[in-house]
Amino acid sequence: MSGSSASAAGLRGFSGGGCRYSLLTIIIWTVVGFFLVVHLVSLYSRKDNNIHDDVSSSDQLQVVHQHQHQHLHLHHPVVHQLVRVEEEILRMPPPRKRSPRTSKRRSRKPIPLVEEFLDDKSPIRHLFFPGLKTAAFGPTKDMGNETSYYFPGKIWMDTEGNPIQAHGGGILLDEKSNTYYWYGEYKDGPTYHAHKRGPARVDIIGVGCYSSKDLWTWKNEGIVLGAEETNKTHDLHKSNVLERPKVIYSEKTQKYVMWMHIDDANYTKASVGVAISDNPTGPFEYLYSKRPHGFDSRDMTVFKDDDGVAYLIYSSEVNSVLHIGPLTEDYLDVTPVMKRVMVGQHREAPSIFKHQKVYYMVTSWCTGWAPNEALAHAAESIMGPWEKLGNPCIGGNKVFRLTTFFAQSTYVIPLPGVPGAFIFMADRWNPADLRDSRYVWLPLVIGGPADQPLEYNFGFPMWSRVSIYWHSKWRLP
């Protein structure tokens, strides 16, 4: 405000009269208008690399139609059903009882909902982790008209009637067999804590694998990469940590390649591990671990692009930066090329996907096992720069949206048959009992304007926003 006042005073002193003042005002607004027009033109002139500067008017019309087509799927009848907004009302418990002496000193304030979520003795814990008898779903349950529905947060059973153990995982669509394979951490063991508020972990059991034709009925294919029981120096010794396994297929070597986060019990090793197999159901042969590009690596994922180039994306530099770099042609190592993105933003749990030549990513803050607000990002190149699109969560309630529905992202896969629609995979971690962590699968739709401006420029990105819609139950089309 003070700067504006000073400028106005200067103008009045300079003008000396209404005519000169009006002329100067016109000049100033002309210059401002010119820069605004230039800026708008620069924003709306983004084109794909295949479109040249000298395109004809018919080519420009085709580009407009392509932009319009990006939003047509929002009116698809299936998508219309998936994007409906559901609200959740959670009744908070009364304030905890305190001793009479303490009650005189402090008022009884409600405990924050996130603390209730983390408290395994909370009276509303059943709202976050419903019990097996009343809240299990899957092919072995008699579900009547609710067969094939997803119930985020409830216990998901496999074809043998056991809870699925595939935490922090990812999906591989094997085109040779047209079968989906779900790989994840097998955590069927007791939870340990380094200290009272330290990191929770379980002994390494291995990587579980499940197969499916419909993304709902999952057959347990067993542990495809098992723990080392006796050799304490081995990366996979049961006392260590194995997290976030992801598998991609190499056409060049005809091998299935698994990448994972490898660590010790205190999370100081901070490395990636690599394993290979001739079959999607294993067994996988463990090869080695390393710190990629010489940096620490914790939460990570891999992404295979349309041209067959695969990338490693990992949280590094004490979780303050994300690193992205291409893998070698056989997918068994990283190349020397690496870009630091989202510097100083403290993002983890990266989940990358692609739609109409634009790369999207969902990440979370670094708050340990406590759930937090997700952010969506977009880029024209996977190597960046990446721009924020805002919080993608819609529905539930305010606390649900600010905690990613009390879950953390792990993977995103295309929703079969519906362009622009995806399945957002997340884990609802149970730090008191990690084997009882739940799966939160929800519809993700790309469309509509982004709700967060560019970080280093005026205006909003030209790509569409990412929306994840809360449903207490939903099903695929």
From TrEMBL:
Keywords: Glycosidase, Hydrolase, Membrane, Transmembrane, Transmembrane helix. Gene3D superfamilies: Glycosyl hydrolase domain, family 43. Pfam families: Glyco_hydro_43 (PF04616). The chain crosses the membrane at residues 21-44. The keyword Transmembrane applies. InterPro entries: Glyco_hydro_43, Glyco_hydro_beta-prop_sf. The keyword Membrane applies. Belongs to the glycosyl hydrolase 43 family. This is Uncharacterized protein LOC104727269 isoform X2. It comes from Camelina sativa. The lineage of its organism: Eukaryota, Viridiplantae, Streptophyta, Embryophyta, Tracheophyta. The gene is LOC104727269.
